[in-house]
Amino acid sequence: MAVADEEEEEGAGWIVSFADLMTLLFAAFVVLYGLKPEGIGDAVKVITATAAIRETFNETPDEIPEDRRSGPTLQGQAVFEFFKGDTTAKPIIKKKARTENVLNIINKDMKQIKRVIDLKLQDETKRSQKNEKDQQTSQGLSVHRETNGYVVRLVSSYFYEPGEYRVKRKDLAKLKDLGTVMRDHGRNIVIQGHSDNMPQKGKYSNWEISTLRATYILKYFVEELDFDPETVRASGYADTKPLVPNDTPAGRKLNRRVEIKVEYDE
Q: What per-residue confidence (pLDDT) applies to 247?
């Protein structure tokens, strides 16, 4: 009987957790019911309560824009002041949300980069209207949006000779114009070299050629364009981060690339 009683007690352990859950749910619904707005007085209570919740789970800005400073007031304090709160305690969860201002800056900087690319492509088209290969250069240089900024992608077959890590002399002007704009933006730059999964024909391995191509651009930015060395870093990934599968010549061509990433970390 003693053994049976012990097994029964152990089997009933879930009741404690279930009871805790039900208690929390009951408390949550009581709070929600209490926040039901019924008049101005209750609306102020809603504002105060929601502000406390937001302050706990979000990191609020230090300054509220003028056009956001509106709403009902209580004792001379506006709604945005409730949102900011007057406690010095650190939020439990730090949530770094993208501000509209940062997104606008990224879009503006991307437009400048795209303008540089478009101008270069227009110049090449004018110089060589009949050369089909030159007209396809647009495939070798592009800009793409990323979560924390944007990336300029250079397809290696357009900027490098096979097995070579130095940018072709005729393409250095493109690199200079792009680098100058990026330098003026004053952001951190990450240069990444990539290859396909085929062995290199030259004296360098995929790891070496991807790293050398990235570090060559880094050196060019620092020595020729006066980049701050603290804001630029480079690395090589060989074939470990393909854009597309390496099972076709077209796919391998896209994967042989250098990516110049511009970061907008707050």
A: 92
